[in-house]
Structure formats: C-alpha cells, structure tokens
Amino acid sequence: MKHIGLLLTLFLTILSCSVNEKPQFIAIENVRVTESTSKQITVVANARFNNPNDIKGELKTDDLVVFVNDNELAHVSSKSFKVPANQEFSIPLTAKIPTDSLYSDKNLSGLLGSLLTKKIKVQYKGDIYYKVFGFSHSYTIDKSEQITIDF
Which CATH number applies to 21-148? Predict the structure, then answer.
C-alpha cells in the first residue's frame, strides 16, 4: 500500500508539469552591427521566444547562415540556451563576417551600393532546435533587415 501511494504521488507530480505546446518563435529583433573594423564586421541579433509550458527546456542553433547583400558570408552556431518555464525570452545570435569576403567578385555590385548608402542587407536563415524530455522541434528562421554600417 505504501508503494502504491508513492507511485500515485510521483504520477500526479509528473502530470502537473506538462508540456502543452512547443515554445512559440516570435521574431528576430535588434539586428545591429556591434563592431566594424577593417578585418571583420560583427552582427548581433536576438531571437525572441515565448514558452507557455511549466517545463524548462533547451534551445540550440546549428549552422544558422548569415547572408549579406544576398551572398552567404557567415555561419552562426552556439552553445545550448536554457529555456525558462512560462516566460518570454531571447537568445543572442552573433556572426563575425570577414570584410574581405565582402570584396569578392560576386559581392562587388552589392558592395558599391553599400558604400554609397552605408546600408547592407543582412539575412538570417536556418534552424533553431528546441529539446525537452526527448521531444524536439525545429524552428525555421528566415529574417532580413537593412542595417546601417560605418566603414
């Protein structure tokens, strides 16, 4: 009888902590250049989510691709981020883009336009993965934004 009470308590505890649905991807926000040198441009953005569940989880980015002026220039991979329960949260995405890749032949026309306007088009494209209790889900990201840079 003692074991049945213990099993029932454990079962009720597990049921009260539920995973109702996957965390909701809201947006890629605050895309900005944080550093611009002669060797590289550092672009940072925040991926914003809302977790409606009572259970924490984990998010990981694997090979999120950064396009500048429609040309693939960098990849973003990061450590896992802890997902808080019942909260809205953001994870940082950082890409370091070598400036010499901006000067290649395929980027020349885009570079000339960027020099004149001091603006570049930055696009994040790829997947972010959510994991909890063996359950996983991927979020497909495809976000573009025009940002101002200083050379």
Answer: 2.60.40.10
Residue 102: what pLDDT?
63
Which sequence spans correspond to the domains of the chain? 21-148
Tally helices (H) and strands (E) across the chain: 3, 8
Two tokens, residue 97: 């883009």
- Amino acid letter, residue 87: Q
pLDDT in tens, 7-55: 445 444 444 444 557 788 888 888 888 888 888 888 888 888 898 888 8
Using one digit for the tens of pLDDT, what is the confidence trace for 64-105?
888 877 878 788 867 788 889 889 998 888 888 777 766 655
**Among 74, 57, 56, CA closest to 65:** 74
In sequence order, which residues have a C-beta less than 8 Å from that of residue 39 and are 6 or more positions away?
A: 98, 99, 100
> 3-class DSSP state for residue 53?
coil
CA distance 11 to 58: 24
On whether the CB atoms of residues 33 and 43 are closer than 8 A, the answer is: yes
Residues in the chain: 151
